[in-house]
Amino acid sequence: MIITVGRLGDSHDTGHTEYVGRGRGSVLGNPLPVIGRSRWTSEAAAWTSHLIHAAHLTGTEREQAQRALHRLGFEQGEAAALYLHVLREQCRTDTPQRRAVLRLAALATQGPVHLQCWCTPRPCHAEHIRAAILGYAQTLPRPA
Ligand SMILES: [Zn+2]
Asked: Which residues are in the DUF4326 domain (predicted)?
């Protein structure tokens, strides 16, 4: 199964291309903003306080979330890494994000799926989306 993470505008001869960055209507954008790159929103505040109180995070991760609350933004690598916990929480119930991941998983059983964002080659939240798609796709029947 081929799922790539690349940059918006990369072109591919085959497969499905999906933009997963912020804005442009993607539900898979990272709600955790990077300092100096995206704005702090009420959604960002809600997710950050969720992270601060989530029991399964490491002490370091919780500190990163606390610092982001004061600075109104995350470091690039932190936002991408901590998105794992956001996506997991979003996929616990039937949400637009879970439905999007399941749709991409179904597509991934049929051909390459190319995720696109702005971050590459910097750390990108789409790596977690890729892992989630792979996980779900393995539970789906392969087309004959
Ligand atoms: Zn990204």
From this structure: 10-129
In angstroms, the CA 137 to CA 119 distance is 25
CA of 143 to the centre of ligand 1 (A): 30
Span from the CA of 137 to the centroid of ligand 1 (angstroms): 21
Provide the 10 A C-beta neighbour count for residue 35: 15
pTM of the model: 0.93
Low-confidence ranges of the chain (pLDDT < 70): 143-144
* Interval between CA 37 and ligand 1 midpoint (Å): 12
- Residue 33 CA to ligand 1 centre (angstroms): 11
